[in-house]
Design a protein that fits this description.
Elements (H helix, E strand, L loop, with lengths): L1 H8 L2 E2 L6 E2 L4 H4 L4 E7 L5 E6 L6 H11 L6 H15 L14 H7 L3 H13 L4
Antiparallel strand pairs: 1-2, 3-4
Helix pairs in contact: 4-6
Amino acid sequence: MIHGLLKLFFPSLCLVCGYLDETLCLECRSVLPFEPHVRILDGGMKVATGCFYEPESVLAQLVHGLKYKHQADVYRYFAPTLRRSLELFCEPSAVILVPVPLHKSRLLERGYNQAELLARTVGRYFGCPV
């Protein structure tokens, strides 16, 4: 409820096109390159990916907003793809998620650890420890 009231008085601008809507408007969201899949590298190592990162893309702008523009709610766009990638990669209930820690000064500056936000969201979904 509070989130809704804040949005009413302080609406978000799309990080990509500036449209007054959400952190990411529907049009910009539609071009996100989220395609979860698993690749097997030489030697049999499996790697799960949720998307391919390209500089200057919508995805790059989202990552930049999440890490440097205090747009913590951007993690909501990444979490579903991370869940699907994990499901392709292994049995999620047998996983322990370990977010990459931030240096104390970066955590104080940013106010959150984006890796931890994502890990906690995915962990709650699968019921696996973080």
